[in-house]
Amino acid sequence: MIYACILAGGIGSRMGNEKPKQYINIGGKPIILHTIEKFCLCSEFEEILILCPKDWIEYTKSLIKRHVTASDKIKVIEGGSTRNETIQNAIDYIDEQGNLTEDTVVVTHDAVRPFVTYRIIKENIEAVKTYGACDTVIPATDTIVESIDGKVISQIPNRACLYQGQTPQSFKALKLRELYRSLTSDEKEIMTDAAKIFVIKGEKVSLVKGENSNIKITYPYDLTVAESLLKGEKGQ
After folding, report:
1. Burial 128-159, CB ≥16 within 10 A → b, else e
2. pTM for this one?
3. pLDDT tens readout for residues 17-30
4. Is the distance from CB of 7 to CB of 87 less than 8 angstroms?
5. 206: which strand partners?
6. Residues 77-111, buried b or exposed e (16+ Cβ, 10 A)?
7. Residue range 196-231, pLDDT digits in tens
8. Cα–Cα dist 123/208, whole Å
9. Beta strand pairing status for 25-26 and 29-30?
10. 3-state percent helix, strand, coil for the chain, nearest multiple of 5
11. N or C: lower Cβ tally within 10 Å for the chain?
């Protein structure tokens, strides 16, 4: 079985708003609805799980009921205190439904990346079935500078080998849970990315080609970019 897991647990502190950034409007409706609609286009999903802060569960349910026609496949559940804990909550939910097997897949995606394409989602599903884990990326266009102390350059890696991570990130759910549970407490504290769990445990993670338009809305400036991208979508 294949599950979409839309991660909406952030509070959006960098956006400077009272409400979490996933509930800010672009094109006249909340960002999270644009994202959900993209996943509703993909028939492979058993369910689309929305993981959000506890205080926003009922609000999210009401939004979906009012605006999403395929709401019968959508479940809103509580996220965790970190990104990885949120994903584990999704896997626990799947387990409680009796659907967690070696072949169960989770396609995890940021709620604030509303411009993900059907192609990206489909290629994630194909890649995770083949490799067990995949990450959506685009080639790095700027030179990346590493500094250990924040004062002087430690090294400048070869840009040709570097990529910028996006989402979706997709995994065999049971394998992800096993690897996550094998982490130490200290490792869990610094593990902000689910794909990195596979990497540090020596597991292969395949690459799926992303899109420059698949932006993460994080700062106020990003809202202006998002409005422009929406106009572009409508004009196609």
Report:
1. beebbbbbbbbeeeeeeeeeeeeeeeeeeeee
2. 0.94
3. 678 999 999 999 99
4. yes
5. 134
6. bebbeebbebbbbbbebbeeeeebeeebbbbbbbb
7. 999 999 999 999 999 999 999 999 999 999 999 998
8. 7
9. antiparallel
10. 45, 20, 35
11. C
